[in-house]
Amino acid sequence: MASAAEQLAANLNMSSFSKATELKKRIWFTLGALIVYRLGTYIPVPGVDATVMGQLLAQHQGGILGMFDMFTGGALGRMAVFALNIMPYISASIIIQLLSTALPSMEAMKKEGEAGRKKLNEYTRYLTVFIALFQAYGIAVGLENMTAHGASAVVAPGMFFIASCVVTLVGGTMFLMWLGEQITSRGVGNGISLIIFAGIVANLPHALASLFELGRTGALSPIFVVIFLVLAIAVIGFIVFMEQAQRRVVIQYPKRQVGNRIFGGDSTHMPLKVNTAGVIPPIFASSVLLIPVTISGFMSGHSMPGWLSVLGQQLGQGQPLYMLFYAAMILFFSYFYAAITFNPEETAENLRKQGGFIPGIRPGANTATYFDRILSRLTAIGALYLVVVCLLPQILISKYNVPFYFGGTSLIIIVSVTIDTVTQIQSHLVAHQYSGLIRKQRNRGSRSGIQGGVRRR
């Protein structure tokens, strides 16, 4: 029976998908936009020797720049126009969200609805340009000081190269920001997350080949390779379980009588996810960690201050300071994002206005306190889950030189974005089914009205 029901549901979904022309347009638009993004990761910045750049990045592959190259889909290693990727936009979003909770004027703007949201998005774009300019200038200056085997990474150093490099990199970031917004509004899924997702997934085959090559050459034990792959599958399953885990809060609505009919008296539930913040904390934490070491990772030791060189070494992959900062920022962003996405006082007030209540909890302040206590505990579990999944693979990466694509951060991004995109596709299919049923009902009503009029005549 269960298998027959599942088969029937699958057939209905396939039938709905074949008729959902709007959803197919959205999917094709999303695929086309991601193809454009991948093509941009192969367009080089003018004046950079790609061979020298690849050699230089290979020297830093085990460091944080290797993770940066993973997020950019290999664009950094090829020094393409999308080398900065979408990270400046993510950093700007972090700063604007922090300011919107700290400054009363920006907090009031956030409560203004659509107009306030557009204003905050405008501020985020301006700040993205500033951060991208800062990072692009640091990369351009650093490229002029980089050499490999006596060859310079820049063909013709000078102000013209710096200006062209900055304009190209900033333009690439702004284009990706626009492309991500277009995917969100006209495609399927979150555009910014899908761009990062596409960059990681695109290099997964190469990462698998590198892992098998390490096993073939004896650099890694074949048994260790098998165990690592099994562990990666287990981690993916654990991530799927935690991303789907919920705490369901029972909501009761009282009965009310209108005339001779009784309404209400129903019991429903409010789902609260264990990992409320989703993939945001690891991405935010990685983005913040990349800012102070972007320049130091490209500059040679004699061309930068000593404290910056020490900072770059201490924030290297697998270093204790890196682990500490990474875990602390994941915890911070988990609580921060949960606080800005779920307001216990507002939720309790809305329940009170609708007549709903939690059994055993008085409406109003007590309900808000109850929600706050549940959210704090769930966020603690979700944050610890993110820390464990993100940090344990880092130990394997730093100790056994396993590719970053099997790290916890990349796996969380892949699983979370996949779940979110599939959920949105299912929502579009359900909406299409309901619209089809409504159209059929209207057509039946109009036909019955015509037939009734004919009979009366």
Quick structural overview:
The protein is mainly alpha-helical. The protein contains 17 helices and six strands.
Description of the structure:
- Strands 1-2 form a two-stranded antiparallel ribbon.
- The chain is globular, with a radius of gyration of 26 Å.
- It has 17 helices and six strands.
- The two termini are 50 Å apart.
- It folds into two domains: 20-202, Orthogonal Bundle (Preprotein translocase SecY subunit); 204-294 and 305-433, SecY subunit domain (Preprotein translocase SecY subunit).
- It is mainly alpha-helical and 457 residues long.
How many individual helices? 17
The count of DSSP E runs of length 2 or more, i.e. the number of strands, is: 6
Quickly give the structural class.
mainly alpha
* Strand order in space, largest sheet: 1-2
Mean pLDDT: 77
Report how far apart the termini are: 50 Å
| Strand content bin | 5-15%
CA gyration radius, whole angstroms = 26 Å
Contiguous uncertain segments of 5+ residues: 1-12
Q: What is the helical fraction, as a range of percent?
A: over 70%
Major beta sheet, specifics?
A: 2 strands, antiparallel
In CATH's first tier, which class of the largest domain applies?
Answer: Mainly Alpha
Helix-strand pattern: HHHHHHHEEHHHHEEEEHHHHHH
Q: What is the CATH superfamily of the largest domain? A: SecY subunit domain
Please tell me the total number of domains. Answer: 2
Could you say what the CATH topology of the largest domain is called?
Answer: Preprotein translocase SecY subunit
By CATH, the architecture of the largest domain is named Orthogonal Bundle
Spatial shape = globular
Transmembrane segments: 27-45, 79-103, 123-143, 155-179, 191-212, 218-241, 279-301, 321-342, 378-396, 402-419
Family: Belongs to the SecY/SEC61-alpha family.
Protein name: Protein translocase subunit SecY
Keywords: Cell membrane, Membrane, Protein transport, Translocation, Transmembrane, Transmembrane helix, Transport
